[in-house]
Design goal:
The structure is a single chain. With 190 residues, the chain is α/β, with parallel strands linked by helices. The chain has two domains: 3-68, Multidrug-efflux Transporter Regulator, Chain: A, Domain 2, CATH 1.10.1660; 75-188, Rossmann fold. Helices cover 46% and strands 19% of the residues. The chain has helices spanning 3-8, 14-21, 25-33, 52-61, 84-94, 106-116, 129-143, 160-163, 176-188, and strands at 11-13, 40-41, 48-51, 75-80, 98-103, 120-124, 148-153, 168-171. Strand 7, helix 8 (160-163) and strand 8 (168-171) form a beta-alpha-beta unit.
Length: 190
């Protein structure tokens, strides 16, 4: 498997995992069979498959560097309508393991989401419930359950349509360190 294939693969064989983790294929089989590395078997076969997210979580939990799993070493955070200064502060708090993207419009958000497939989306709730709901629904339709969508609102008590589309709601202002903690938690819960 060449590097670009690894970057875009969503599921790996035990041989590919062995190459990425720099261990023998039998070691990967042992991890799988003991339940340490989560995955599934191909029906009617003994072949094993490991989803990308399970591999990333396993590597992080066991201190295996993600550098050989191109593109996996960074988690992506999409900030929609968030002030640039807040996004910059968040980026500094999160460090090199995360890449923060900023979108000012729903169109920009969709374009960025398609390119980077963010792990977490921070949506600054504008107060126009109809527009907020459309943005959240569009991102959810685009990413499915692959990303946590967190609403950031200035006043509590938004109507039900928007909160049903969000995984969490946080009140603003929130400190960059508090926001970074929310993002890290959402990335772990994926």
């Amino acid at each position: 498997m060449i590097i670009s294939d690894i970057e875009h693969a969503s599921v790996f064989t035990t041989g590919q995992v062995a190459t990425i983790c720099q261990v023998a294929p039998r070691t990967v089989t042992k991890w799988f069979d003991t339940g340490r590395l989560k995955g599934y078997r191909i029906p009617g076969s003994k072949d094993r498959r490991i989803p990308r997210q399970n591999l990333i979580e396993f590597m992080e939990a066991h201190g295996i560097p993600l550098t050989d799993l191109v593109g996996a070493s960074q988690r992506h955070v999409l900030c929609i309508r968030l002030e640039p200064a807040v996004a910059d502060s968040l980026s500094g708090e999160l460090g090199s393991g995360f890449r923060v993207h900023l979108a000012e419009t729903a169109f920009d958000a969709g374009t960025i989401a398609m390119k980077c497939r963010p792990d977490c989306v921070l949506l600054a709730i504008s107060g126009d419930q109809q527009i907020d709901a459309l943005v959240a629904e569009g991102i959810r339709d685009l990413l499915g359950q692959d990303a946590q969508i967190i609403g950031l609102e200035k006043t509590p008590g938004h109507s039900q349509p928007i909160t049903d589309l969000l995984d969490d709601v946080q009140l603003r202002p929130i400190s960059p360190s508090g926001l970074a903690q929310v993002v890290r938690h959402s990335a772990r819960s994926r």
